[in-house]
Design goal:
The complex is a heterodimer of chains A (about 270) and B (about 260). By secondary structure, chain A is an alpha/beta fold. Chain A is built from 9 helices and 10 strands. Helix content of chain B is about 85%, strand content about 0%. Classes of the chains: A alpha/beta (about 270), B mainly alpha (about 260).
Chain lengths: ~270, ~260
């Protein structure tokens, strides 16, 4: 579904040349939930913006369902970390969710239907008439997720969406993402700096190196599909996986080579298709 | 109810005191130029008859409305273009700063040469003064569209006219309204000034006529009426602003509460 090949991004400006992303190649299959995790400042946001067509890569290409991405494609929806700035405060919740659909030439009843359905599936069916700033942070991020769902994307890109909400809300929202992914079968690429979140959410975790970024490791998360905050997080397998990712990231921060000895049993690194 | 009453008292207290001071201190005045307030108030209904409202006040207000509307349209349109393009802004900014620094009243003789001495001249004078605060505030507002807001719009394919209508202009609207508010007071000043040159009717014209014919209490009634007009327009503006920017005041109140 999503195919990233040799992606490289160099920022040039005022005499400084910063290589944020060096060489990234990975794929995301249709219906897969993949988490990208890496040390802070490793160019995760840059990477996601290149994938979403918001930034032009210096080299390399991104393909969505076989078509090359040049500019934001209609098959992708973006959920930003800063929900307060991403939702339009001058529009009510319902209008916020509906606005992108107006660009898609959908009929009015169809738009209404999509908006109502999306809001209901994030548990905000009766918030359509409120303004975003009347809602709590977690609810605002739910609205942003509803807006993305109503857009009916093939791929959902999420850029550290829960970094700015409190821990309990965060757990709820993680479960919401898992539930929506399982219900709707959409493809999700989820960027985070939180190792636990990455292991809890993902079917697969891609560990990135420090900037300039390359793929350090791809790890299949062999936890059962039905996950919950209480049991999954205390499962021995969860602890093993998170410890492994944690060590990889620590090593990445210090620029060390991959730590092969600590690899958990049974973790298979899928080939980079 | 009691809180409403208290607020009313607070709002009215200072005006009442000022009028009372004026009334008492001027009551024994023998000065021709400084007549007792009692005389001014009693002259008011005689001066501002229905015919004067139709013949002088209405034309003034209509010219103000036309000039203000023209300035709004031109200011917002040009400001949006200049604010959205860095190159255009770099080219225009020095010129704009220069033009803005020219006091509009000195343009009246120049504008008279092109636009004659009729209503067109007065409307152009009002518009030429009102346009600057609107234009410059629109430029700033359009330029300051939040980066995440802009990226969100882009990622959802909201471009062109839809972007302008649903994203850029609403986002700039608090700044645009700040400009419109400044423009309103500039407009009232220019309405009066434009009528002091080569005019045959209007509030400014009438006040100058009274002054030249030594009808001093009548002149004072005109000044009172101008003050009242300014007050009424400002209240109307506030009503419109509160409606249009309801979201903005709500957002700011929410931000204050969460801090």
């Amino acid at each position: 579904m999503l195919d990233v090949r040799g992606l490289r991004k160099v920022y040039e400006g005022s005499g400084r040349r910063v290589e944020a992303v060096r060489d990234l190649t990975f794929t995301v299959a249709a219906g897969e939930l993949v988490c990208l995790v890496g040390p802070s400042g490793c160019g995760k946001t840059t990477l996601l913006k290149c994938v979403g067509g918001l930034l032009e890569p210096t080299a390399g290409e991104v393909f969505l369902a076989g078509r090359r991405v040049a500019g934001p494609p209609p098959g992708m929806a973006f959920v930003f970390q800063e929900y307060g700035r991403s939702l339009f405060p001058w529009m009510r919740v319902g209008e916020n969710v509906e606005l992108p659909l107006k660009q898609k030439d959908l009929s009015r009843p169809r738009r209404r239907e999509l908006v109502a359905d999306a809001l209901a599936s994030v548990g905000l069916a009766d918030a359509a008439g409120a303004y975003p700033w009347q809602l709590s942070g977690g609810m605002q991020q739910r609205v942003a997720i509803a807006r993305a769902l109503a857009y009916e994307p093939e791929v959902l890109l999420m850029d550290e969406p829960f970094a700015a909400v409190d821990a309990q809300t965060r757990a709820d929202l993680e479960d919401l993402v898992r539930a929506l992914w399982r219900e709707r079968g959409i493809t999700v690429l989820f960027v985070t700096h939180d190792i636990d979140e990455a292991v809890y959410l993902g079917q697969r975790v891609i560990v990135l190196s420090a900037s300039p970024t390359v793929v350090r490791e791809q790890l299949r998360i062999d936890l059962p599909d039905g996950r919950d905050q209480v049991h999954t997080r205390v499962a021995p397998r969860f602890a093993e996986l998170r410890t492994h990712v944690y060590e990889q990231i620590q090593a990445a921060k210090h620029g060390a080579a991959r730590v092969p000895s600590k690899e958990p049993q049974g973790a298979d690194t899928p080939p980079t298709h | 109810m009691r809180r409403l009453l208290l607020r009313l008292v607070l709002v009215l207290a200072l005006p009442v005191v000022l009028v009372a001071v004026w009334w008492v201190s001027s009551s024994g005045s023998e000065d021709v130029y400084w007549p007792p307030l009692r005389t001014i108030v009693s002259a008011f209904p005689d001066v501002w008859t229905g015919e004067r409202w139709r013949g002088d006040v209405l034309p003034s207000v209509l010219r103000l409305a036309a000039g203000y509307a023209l300035a709004t349209v031109v200011g917002v349109a040009l400001g949006t273009v200049i604010g959205s393009h860095r190159r255009v802004r770099a080219v225009c900014e020095p010129v704009l700063e220069f033009l803005r620094a020219v006091p509009p009243p000195v343009l009246v003789p120049v504008i008279m040469l092109f636009a004659g001495i009729g209503d067109t001249m007065k409307v152009v004078v009002i518009a030429s003064g009102c346009v600057w605060p609107v234009l410059l505030n629109t430029v700033e507002g359009v330029r300051a569209v939040d980066a995440v807001t802009a990226e969100t719009a882009r990622s959802y394919g909201i471009t062109g006219v839809a972007r302008l209508r649903h994203v850029v202009l609403p986002s700039a609207s608090p700044q645009i309204f700040a400009g419109l508010r400044q423009a309103l007071s500039v407009g009232i000043i220019l309405m009066v000034i434009s009528e002091m040159f080569a005019a045959s009717n209007g509030l400014g014209f009438t006040i100058v006529q009274f002054q030249r014919s030594f009808a001093i209490p009548d002149m004072w009634t005109g000044i009172l009426l101008l003050g009242l007009l300014g007050f009424v327009l400002s209240v109307l503006f506030q009503l419109v602003e509160r409606r249009a920017l309801g979201w903005y005041h709500g957002l700011r109140a929410a931000a204050r509460r969460s801090r």
